[in-house]
Queue: 2 jobs
Job 1
Amino acid sequence: PSVLQDSVIQVPKVRWADIAGLEHVQQELESIIIRPLKSPENNVMFGAPPSRKGILLYGPPGCAKTLIAQAMATESNQNFLAVKGSELIKMYVGESERAIRDVFRRARAAKPCIIFFDEIDSIGKSRKDSQDSGLNVVTTLLNEMDGIEALKEVFIMGATNRPDILDSALTRPGRFDAHIHIGLPTGEARKQIFEIHTRKSPLAQDVDLDVLAAKTEGNSGADIKGMCSVAVEKAIADYTQARDAGLNSPPEIRMEHFERSLKKHVP
Ligand code: ATP
């Protein structure tokens, strides 16, 4: 039995269209991952190394790092194996190392496969700051990454909110050697995130997503998703209350529901 309960191999259903405002990241990832896979002869022609093995996504929480890794897997028809760094390090001595080796073994068996290490900083904390167990975990990860041949269809993605505390051995060429910053969404992206997360909901005429986008500066995509859920809850509560009182109220989410969910939310 795997010690990593959550790390099942899956083919995620997330597509680029589900992610707002990160087209530049999509393009960068396609040129790093997909293009060399499709036409390896270009790399030979240009005398470039085969390709990269790992990409680090960094930036504030809730800004689609996980979504991007999942969309990358879906759009390039790869399997996806997700591992949480914090799960790995709470294991007993020796167990974490075994779990890491197990993850790479399973990924090779399921290739083409992307391994996604979320919260990679908890494994990759600078070795000098951590005790012996931390050191072994990082060493095992480095060994496994070195054992992967670029373009041999296992690709590694890592995500962190704390790139500053990562062990520099992890960010060296041949490991997580491309670093992509994923920042807070812009106004236009926030509007799209509202759209994505209300796609299936009946919005009233008065809902103005431009206004909502303008009022949510500094919020992450996850924050906005949360506000949409709260607005829906409030709309349902109003609808049921009106219906129970014998009033005729349409099943819709009005601007006031969003306004109330915004007020409650502290970023
Ligand atoms: P963490 O660092 O906390 O793990 P993360 O950067 O990996 O966060 P995700 O888990 O990918 O963030 O995002 C959380 C949720 O927020 C997503 O499942 C998605 O519903 C929503 N979300 C965040 N950013 C976007 C975006 N740009 N477009 C659409 N949805 C988004």
Job 2
Amino acid sequence: VLGLGAVVEDITERRHAEEERTRLYREAQEAVRVRDDFLTIASHELKTPLTPLALRLAGLERRLDRGEQVDPSSLRHARQHLLRLTALINDLLDASRIESGRLALHPQPTRLDTLVEHVIHVTEGTHDAEHRIEFQPPAAPAQVLGDPYRLEQVIANLLENALKYSPDGGTIHVALEPRGELVLLTVRDPGIGIPPDQQERLFERYFRARNVSTHSYGGLGLGLYICRDIVERHGGSIWVESEVGRGSTFYVALPTLPATPVAPPHLPERH
Ligand code: ADP
């Protein structure tokens, strides 16, 4: 009986080892598949702005050769494709910096309300007028200790997504409000929404929800991954609430910097 027991135990152990090997093999296969899919999507995404850019430039060259006037809107479109390309490459570089722990932050006292206003201004200047962006500023200045360049990137990313995933236009509501020791940024859109079972995974690298096909909405699935890293390294958190077909609200909570008392001006003594 004892011998039989040992044999059964041996078989069980071998089966466990076999199952573990199969699991690791499947995981490795999945990782290779994700990487291959990503390379296909990334190459496609990088090529998408390049083709119209090359066409525009060829058109401009022809006109100049013939001594004709150049249409400024052509140049603007060419610049937009170039900006898109730069943004994609920056996302790829940032994601790789995060992976290797090389994304440096340069924190300084930063006015979040001013940053949000700036990002909205820039975004309005580069997008068509199909959407309205409404900003509800905080009653008092919202100051955080953070890297202004990286925080601007987070705000811009959330705003870009709100516009991109609200294809029918509508109003994007942005708000900043104090919550105790924190300041809460909300970006609410009336867009396509996110399926409930996918919401937790949005902040993973390369993840794109199943209701966005590469065909209709370009993207690499890196923006929110980068946002989460930046926000968490500022001691904050980022999350989403969403309903398919009704829209999404992204939240970012960051610790505020207590307002420093303004030092009285130093007046030279009179003699
Ligand atoms: P990308 O937009 O390049 O795919 P992100 O990391 O910014 O990458 O977003 C990851 C995924 O989250 C998107 O592919 C999309 O499925 C979903 N998503 C992000 N923002 C929104 C939004 N405002 N509305 C609906 N879905 C969104």
